[in-house]
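Reply to dn_fold:

You asked what the input looked like. This is it:
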Amino acid sequence: MANVTLAAGSGFAPPGSGARRIPPIQCLLTFEALARLRSVTQTAEELCVTPSAVSHRVRQLEQILGTRLFGRSDFSLTTEGSAYLSHVREGLGALQRFPGEVTAPGRRRLKLAVTPTFARVILIPRLRQFTETYPEIDIALQVSIPLLDVVAEDADLMVRFGPGHYADVEHIELARDVVTPLASPAFIREHGPFEQPQDLEGMPLLRSPLEPWRTWFGATGLDWPEPHEGSQFNDIGLMCDAASAGMGIALVRHKLGAPWLDNGTLVRLFDVDTASPHAHYLCWRTGTMDRWECAAFAEWLKRAMAC
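and this is what came back:
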């Protein structure tokens, strides 16, 4: 196959007499899948072809376009590849729509994977600011599980909560916070008073891998091990609901516990706070920020979190 060079400003290279060549659909499907999965084996399995067919189709597409789409062995996209991916996805999406289906021209779709309580307490109350500033961007919000990093494979941006050591993605820190024990007023009346940290001995402590008790124990001088018994939750919002129902005492970050504190269903036991060992991070795969809608959302979220 002859090498083809892109003319400046053209979408496809003209193989002759000014005609633009449209790449084969199987090449476009393979490129989109490989960019999303970042694995030749998984791409081959999804498309029911051999791994060598995946490699051949990508080389064929790069030859037609006259540019490299993938930059490294981990299948991160080049700048040109990231830009072309958005066009390919837009085109494939148009082919998937049925005749007569109305779509607004020029719109962009941004897929977010967000931890549940962060979404409800932090993001949703602020999200209208973003949609009013960028009305041409449609947000698709999906739930991810903190620490377990259970997210949708095709999410453009992900909010993770954890220690921040993410080798598989680029990321920035969004917010840190302090934690303190909270309980319902009824629980405090029944089991109190709570005047010093030692008064927690024998109390039902609600557990979560998101907020280990040993952090607060150490800050208050308690040489206690991490609790290994009692109810456990992988979502802070659910743990707050359980504490407000009188099930026990929850260790909660101020920002995420604000709705329960504001409406009085949870109250502080002590005036002792300590920094959480975890933080919220905005994460993305290499090349994602070349898409203007992703960069716009990341910049907006950083500003919103700073307020």
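The chain has three domains: 23-94, 106-173+277-304, 175-274.
Hope that clears it up.
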